[in-house]
Fold each of these.
Amino acid sequence: MYFGLLGPLVVRPGNTDRDQRAVGGPKVRTLLATLLLEANRPVPPDRLKAALWGDRPPASANASLHNMLARLRTQLDDAPGDRLRSTPLGYLLRVADGELDAQLFDLGVRRARDALMREDWASVRRESTAALALWRGVPLLEFPDLPQAQVPRQQWQGTRLQALEWRIEAELHLGQVRGLVPELTGLTGEHPLHEAFHAQLMLVLHRLGQRSEALAAHQRLRRTLVEELGTEPGVGVQNVLELVLRDGPAAPEPVTTTPSVLDVQAQLPSRIADFTGRRAELAALTGLLEAPPAADVPRVAVVSGMGGIGKTALAVNAAHAVKHHYPDGQLYADLRGFGAAPARDPHELLAVLLTALDDRSAGPGRPGRPLPEHTDDRAALLRTALADRRVLLVLDNARDAAQVTPLLPGGSRSAVIVTTRNTLTDLPASVRFSLAPLDVEEQRSLLSRLCGPERIQRDPDGALRLLAACAGLPLALRITGARLSSRPAWSLGTLAERVEDSRGRLRALSVGSLAVDATFATSYLAIRDSDDPAEREAARAFRLLGLWAGHTLGVDAAAALLDRPREHAADLLERLADVHLVQTPEPWRYRFHDLLGEFAAERVRAEEPAEARDAAALRLGIWYAVALESAGTAVDPSRAPRLAEPPAVPAPAFTDPQHALDWCLKELPVIKEVIRRAADSSRPDLTWRLAVWLMAYAHTFWWTGEWDACLTLALKSAQEHGDLLGQAWTLRRLGASHGMAYRNDEAIEALEAALALFENHGDDVCKAVILGNLSMAYNQQGRYGAALAYAEVAWGLQQQGGGEEGGIGVLAALAQAYLQIEDFDAALTHFRALLERCRSRGNLTYTAVALANLGDCLRGLDRQEEAFAALDESLTIRRRLGDMSGIADTLVISGRAHAHFGRQSEARACYEQAAEIGHAHGIPALLRQGLDGLERLGNL
């Protein structure tokens, strides 16, 4: 079978024009085009749906996609499914060698390029002619809005123009000029700004003895360029013009002495054959370089990112795609800004660039001019040399703006692509492209290209494990692909087992001269061994951050870790971000790329003494303990023990309970890790102190199970170290946690143990809070008399102790006890007082709880309108907070109210939603309450 993309989409049983197979309708043709653009690679269903329906696929998209795939199989006579397969990574259309015109076209162009490098002009003509014969028109013209087609279409069109240049150049070298005038006249009319075709037309006319026509062709080009772009023709055209003027009307020189239109510097490295992904970045970069230049403003694109992220690959592929816009040459220089060798000096680089430009334009018998001694003079000379030329410069691996600035053109005709691990924020008049790790689909596509789609299909789980280990870094994926290619007997899972070992992952990600850790080392050593003290200090910050490589730290926490004032730490972190050694996902928060974090962890173990590592970890632990104390106090004042020592930098001050809760949610992953590490540190007390003060988070999000895990670890640590104070406070909090989860027996056991420990301290307020929690547990067990007795004692103790601590919790227990014994008037009085306190505190969670229970009380008093007003407000608050347990609890109470007032359909909806939440989030008590409510409705 034969598939055609270079023109209208065609499908033929064979490689002939006969028996062309109809594929329709429009959606199925779009589906086939998308699969062919990714031939032999799995295409995820989401990408296919995006091609078919854009950003908003219909609800029936999955079913429609399956129907279209079935129709496509039928139209391709693919009943067995051998050609169009479903794989774990998506749908794959198998295309054999020679079946797709685009693949044949690319192969022919590569062969023509190879022949061009050998100056085998007969082969250049043969291969380029064969490639061009496959062209039937604008690729996939019938799909103008297909996102997947935009970049390939642009690249194929640019490659076709290059192949046309090469074929005509071969004709000129072979002395076959007749018949070229009509073709070149058409090409210059179709591409009025493409200087190479105009230069070739002038040369053909010159050889045919039509000097005036050649000069007229030059004038037409010059007039167009001046009017459209405000520029003069480039050096290639000027060389041909000089030849025409010098030779006069006499017969032209032999072919062997005629200057070639291709006699320009073409220094670009070869394209990456398996370059994958980066479609948006590639389109934006090529669009910038192809756009008409602005007056006297050079086009400078800075492609930045961490080592191994694929900066050079993107820059080189983009440069090849647009090089026909720069007919006066393409220059390439590795600036060695990050590497084992010293960075190249701009003075020396200017000499290299000026020599290349001078050699190209000097001509026979005119030696190049001597270069100035001063760097500024050389830079001025480079700007002069580029003023009337259209040259593309690729400056790879730049260290900083000072290295690049002298190499920039002064006008807008030439353009520059700079790749760097630095952001080069101080480079003027530049457009920046910062590369992130590849997304999952791009990673799959690249790995498929590197090791073959068949191996991925055989071991999709191993493929996913490898992608996770490589963390979106193209270099890591290429190393993985190279290892797999050299070991055909290995499955992807076999390699994944080694690469997944975090102790040796960086060593496993190396093959030959490619190594992830060596690439990272060039960035790190550049600042560690710098002459700049600030860079050396940033390198130490990089190492110390490696102690917390898997986590995102805010600038204040990082300042405590680094033992530096906040502003100083921010400068260090921003310096690391500028050279892509850390990422900054949001303002003033910092994290490592997964693999870079592993490298940093290795460096801190190797270069920092154990005492320094332990001291840094302790500083961070103390800072989080004090910060969590501040958050807990903002949510609910407590007499929980506080640390005596001050933190290395000030802890945050929270303006209200919601501010504190938001901070806890953001910092929870690091807090959990601090708790875990503190248990085995010189300060195990930090484990229970942090867990106890984490109540600020748990009031709203106890149901996630995170607090339970922290408290369990804290209790074990306190018991192992004989810390009675830690045990008392941890048991108190653990009892509250069990009670919130309706684990009433466990709650009572923990609270009674805590109460026994607090008896020795004589703290009436602590006893009151524990008794209030016991009252709640007994209420949930249905032991309402005991609940009321405990609540009344607790309230008396709390009143004697005075102060705000525990007041809300004890008052809530008392009000709840009255509600359960159906003393609705007493309950109403206490719930109204409770709600007033909660609102005055600004604590939304407590307010929502009070409103829900107030609504239940008003139900008992048959005050329907007031009851639902309270319940609706409670539900609104809890949904805003994302408190799933609270939402379900309010729904159960609302269901009870709806049923009480005869609104059975509304009650059923509330109970069903509550049961669904209880099931989805593992809260058995709420699931049971929802189901019990539904059962009662059935009995009604």
Amino acid sequence: MKVFIILGFSAAIAFTAVFFSFLQLGKDILFETEGNCITEAIQKGSSLVDYAAHYALKRNIQGRGISAPALLLAFSKFPEQESQDISQAAERMEMSIQVLKQKVCQKHKRSLHPTDLLSADLLTTIANISGCLPYMLPPKCPNNCVANKYRLITGACNNREHPRWGASNTALARWLPPAYEDGLSQPRGWDPSIRYNGVQLPLVREVTKTIIHASNEAVTEDNMYSDIIMVWGQYIDHDIAFTPQSTSRTTFLNGMECQTTCEKQNPCFPIKVTTNDTLSTGMDCLPFYRSSAACGTGDHSILFGNLSALNPRQQINGLTSFLDASTVYGSTPAAENKLRNLTSKEGLLKVNAKYYDNHREYLPFTDQIPSPCAQDLNASEGERIECFMAGDSRSSEVTSLAAMHTLWLREHNRMARALKNINGHWSAETVYQEARKIIGALHQIITLRDYIPKIIGPDAFNLYIGPYAGYDPTLNPTVSNVFSTAAFRFGHATIQPIVRRLNAQYLDDPEFPNLHLHEVFFSPWRLIKEGGLDPLLRGLLAHSAKLQVQDQLLNEELTEKLFVLSNNGSLDLSSLNLQRGRDHGLPGYNDWREFCGLPKLETHTDLNTVITNRNVTEKIMELYHNPSNIDVWLGGLVEDFLPGARTGPLFACIIGQQMKALRDGDRFWWENDNVFTEAQKHELKKHSLSRVICDNTGISEVPGDAFQLGKFPQDFKHCANIPGMNLEAWKEFYQEEEICGTPKSVENGDFVYCSETGKSTVTYSCQYGFQLQGEEQLTCTSKGWNFEAPACIDINECENKINPPCSPSAECINTKGSYKCLRTDPHKLAEDGRTCIAYIRKVLYVYRKLRALTMTKLSYSCK
């Protein structure tokens, strides 16, 4: 897959070389005697970093589209282009710094330290070279009427004073300082010689096997809530948080593949296993990739700001933090552009061009062909059903999640068609934005009204969230690291090992029998070829969720068979969660209890006061020895539930505080003044997840509350009795401007009407890949529109030298609204006999510059 062919090695060489070239050209920075040392540093860095890159995923797809579990995880965690650019920018600088830290200059009786080389004048230059600088500066917020009417797709500028709060591709919030072993970036448990309260931290896989793992048969059914409550939790998590893994697949310093090494070298943080472990594949570890660092944090934070106050490593949220249905629309302009049907006059989203579900729409397939999703082994030769494409890259992980994404794609298009029918004068852009605004509001309502109170209980809801009192611009809505990495992962303990599919009478369907969870990982073909959405949704509505019981946490489908599509090995979701918490530097369990005002637990006896299952507390103390050592995800998971809740006091606190921040810190929250009219709010409150299912499937009978478990037919209602919105509340009285008339349409763009200070105005925007030339906003005056309509001019993406759109091994060709990457052989030696074609042109320039400066003969070879 071409998106995975990213020659990080070349990028490392390029930016390390550019880094040093600037230092050389500084004249006052280096002595002439160190020239050879710098060249040696570059050569050393080149050989050590060697291919810190993704391999083409298609090389790892075996047979009929079967991928190794770690590669499936990498696919689902692979970031959108902008997140990828940020990750790579941070890693470029990290690689350069690590090369500098190597003792390659010992023969000069000194080792180079970055602070020896940097002058104040070069700091901004280096940040710019790395590609970090554009992402560290405040975004430019639009100043027009529409910016107050619709949220930006990136979430930026929601808060006028803090425009990066809640925006995509910014660092997760820290509610407590991170706990790294070196105070900067090294995860807890990285160095086995370091002790915590006198003992080593336990291996995460041992924690899983001893405490968390449960058999598929060890399931206690939740007698209150249906299985769809688990799906909604996962879906909403994917609306507000996505932390991309490192874009590199090999270690920076020695070029070892993370798949084949158990050495702890960034970005590899392998999970150690024993030889008799069921997940053992002949190695002593499972591969694990560290999350991408945010620019200006971690090892290279010395380059920014006060050199004496290092910034600890932070992780990126690739999504907007807001509850804004980014699962449907994406969180960057590029992602949004791929998802929209820009030829439609109704503001529609793209749908699958090949398959339909009883005349209803499916998600489109990803444009990354071939994708790693599983294939029907009984399909005819050459027939492929690819992974789906949605606003979040994880939409194909399991069929239930894909079904929820599909449901909301259909709801947007249904809503858009209805709005266009009511307001025929609306432009396609207006219809799209109004439908998007409604869909976002429904996500907020269903989550805060119907879902969260059931999870944290009424007491915690009143304590941490309470009634809505309006927008609070002092409250930071950014998703916190502990919420994303620990607290909201409580739902993994509510996942059933069995996927049920039911017929129209809510009975087992012999045509579509029950499946084990591992049989639906990355398997969109099962939706398309095995009955569509309806049987699966009926199974979710009519069967209970798994109850989170202290000695029945994650079933073996998750701890032994995660992302299994063949005999290529497996992953363990529990161990991934624990390792991710350590990777992110999350403080321990007691630190978070103190943060929430809960008593600190000092002893085994103290632990028994919050966990009634004595067998579980004994196992925890046997492994951790001290309650303060407990990983926060595990500690929060095993606490006794609060009354009427599905979490204990710690997670209820963290989830409650996060939800309040997401609500009160969002200027576009549906209840805030001037977001919707009172009539529109009244209609929005009528809607529900059950109504969405009624409107977008063939299911005719549903529970009144989709999350509440009931028996069919007595506890189900016919869809005719499920209330919904009357969109007439969105009807606009339209009278064409007598003086100005209808604004002129523009090619590759559109406009939105927006009244401001009693005047009729229109605001123009261009499709992704085009930029506006002319006035953005026009106002109707007594003489007509005050400006000529603007034009949308093609952007030449190939001119972007900081973050080139194509990989180093490809030539960029600009096209209308986009670009093409023409690939060359990344390992071919050029005619000069010394240059690998894959290298960035800038590398060639800098190498020649360095060679001229140092008069050192360089030798070249191709891997």
